[in-house]
Amino acid sequence: MKIRWAISLEETMTSPNFQNIFRKAILCLSETEVEYQKRFRFKEDALACLIGKLMPRKAAVLHTNRQWNSLEFVKNESGKPSLRQEATSVPRFEYNVSHQGDLVVLATGETRIGVDVMRIDESRRETASEQVDSFKRHFSEDEIESVKGGDKSDLKRWQAFYRIWCLKESILKATGVGLPDGLHNHTFQLDPIYEHIPGSSTTSSLYFHQSILQLQWTFEESYIGENHCVAVASESQSKEFVPFEMTTLSEMIDEADFINVTADPDEELDAFMEKPNKPF
């Protein structure tokens, strides 16, 4: 089973039933998970954290047929979260979550997987070309050319920049090695004919680690809506593309078990509502 879900933070917080949904969500998380979301200063980040904990639980129930209250999530030595499962468990449940802009996204599968989402932001002080110059140590010459080359608008250049950034982040998250391995060691050869714009999708990008082609990985690239670029890295040669489905926080906790019965949902809601919104 392969799941691709996305949830809008704005739509969640403006839902007429948001406060009741939030109260129930608190009861469906572990005490540790509830405490963790409290650390965030802004509403959007705290809510993204909460949603990012609930999405894998819902997906794991569907994938493994286990009960909500039997699921335990752990982190490896690199800090990558995973579902605790027997080494011989079939099917395997692998997942990854990303949050940026207005979206929280989840991708699941049976092999190593990573996902990254970025909102196309043209309001930055620098141009896309200036941005890629400041990050050039992380990009190959071909990647830099894909952003700076040709006669195209700054929007097209930003789309190219965020596309490459999502690809790099998705493979780092899939492998669990993180930034210490260096973004410059993970490069991509892009299809020169394909135009990556809202409404389009591709699995054509080729991945190189330290200049060696890695054919065991597939990268699903697309947009969610008009301004969120997303990439999914999966350890598979299938080249199958699975589109993202917009869903809701309410759907994540539908039929969920209460596992944090000692929590005070009213107190948690009050603490959340006192947080400021992001000023940017």
Automatic annotation (TrEMBL):
GO molecular function terms listed in the Swiss-Prot or TrEMBL record: holo-[acyl-carrier-protein] synthase activity; magnesium ion binding
InterPro entries registered for this protein in UniProt: 4-PPantetheinyl_Trfase_dom (IPR008278), 4-PPantetheinyl_Trfase_dom_sf (IPR037143), AASDHPPT_N (IPR055066), P-Pant_transferase_sf (IPR050559)
GO biological process: lysine biosynthetic process via aminoadipic acid
Keyword Transmembrane helix in record: no
EC number: 2.7.8.7
Domain of life: Eukaryota
Occurrences of domain 4'-phosphopantetheinyl transferase (ranges): 112-233
CC annotations in GO: cytosol
Organism this protein belongs to: Caenorhabditis nigoni
Descriptive protein name: L-aminoadipate-semialdehyde dehydrogenase-phosphopantetheinyl transferase
Keyword Repeat: no
4'-phosphopantetheinyl transferase N-terminal domain ranges (all copies): 21-108
Similarity section: Belongs to the P-Pant transferase superfamily. AcpS family.
Entry keywords, A to Z: Transferase
Catalytic reactions on record: apo-[ACP] + CoA = holo-[ACP] + adenosine 3',5'-bisphosphate + H(+); apo-[ACP] + acetyl-CoA = acetyl-[ACP] + adenosine 3',5'-bisphosphate + H(+)
Transmembrane region(s): none
